[in-house]
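Because showing beats explaining, we let one protein speak, sequence and backbone structure tokens together, and leave readers to judge.
___
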Amino acid sequence: MGIVIIIVAMVVIGLLVGAIASLIWKDNKPFGTIGDYVIAIVTAIVFGLIAWYVIPIMGFSNTIRWISLATEPLFGALFVLWLVRKARGFTASEIEMGETSTSHISRTTLDSIITRHVSQGYRVAYQTEKVVQLVKSKTHNHVLLLFCFLFGLIPLIGYAVQYGAERDKILTMRIREDGLIDKEFEGGSKPWANAVGGGLIAVGAIVSCAIVIGFISR
């Protein structure tokens, strides 16, 4: 019965975190609102079960167990949602664009589109009167890399998985005969790499924190 209560509590925390995420990142939802709730709930349950079962096995006191149970699911779910957005690296305009779309805009608007994307880190790789290709090279997230370095080998492996699978973002725009612009988006991060890498980073950080707290509390 106790584990059922824990899971129900974690689901509630996940719903709360999903709602908070909608307020924090209104225009940046790589997997949509439902995706945020699903990620938050699953993460909260995983972190809750880790706190409930793993921490006692590691020899930590019940006090540490309850502190972990009260904090790790909440902050862990928020961290994973932030990590997903960082890993995806999409701006609001890219999310609205989708992978392939057709915009009802004229040729005169193309320069403003190029300027906007250049300000977001893209560069013009190829341009003619009919075709424009913009490329945004993948870059290291130095804040996340430092975080992973501080929390040990497992988070670093997770970061390597994410970064290794990521590809340069390529946006190709073609002007049609009717004046409309076809837009095709390629590259970026891989969902499976985000899931595996994010999970390794989160689990590694939690384990490292639990070990440090355990040594301090002894």
User: Anything to note?
Assistant: The longest helix spans residues 62-88.
